[in-house]
Amino acid sequence: MARFKIVGATPLVGNVKISGAKNEALKAVALSLNIKNKLKITNAPQILDVVNQGKILKSTGSIINICNNNEIIIDTTYANNFDLTDTIAGKLRASIVFAGPLLARFKSVKLPYPGGCLIGCRSIDTHLDAFRQIGAKISEHKRIFSINIDEFHDSNIILKEKSVTATENIVMFASAIAVKTKIDNCAIEPEIIHLLLNLQKAGAQIDGIGTRTLIIKGSQNLKLKTYEIITDRIEAGTFVCAMISSGGEGEVSPYPADQLESFTRLIKSTGANFDIIDNKAIIKQSRFPLKPFSLKTGPFPEFPTDLQSPMSLLALRAKGVSLFVETMFENRLSYLEILRKMGASIKIIDRQTAEINGPCKLRSANIESLDLRSGITLLLAATMSEGETFIEKAEIIDRGYEKIDEKLKLLGANIERINS
Ligand code: EPZ
Question: Which ligand 1 atom minimizes the distance to the CA of 328?
Answer without folding.
Answer: 38
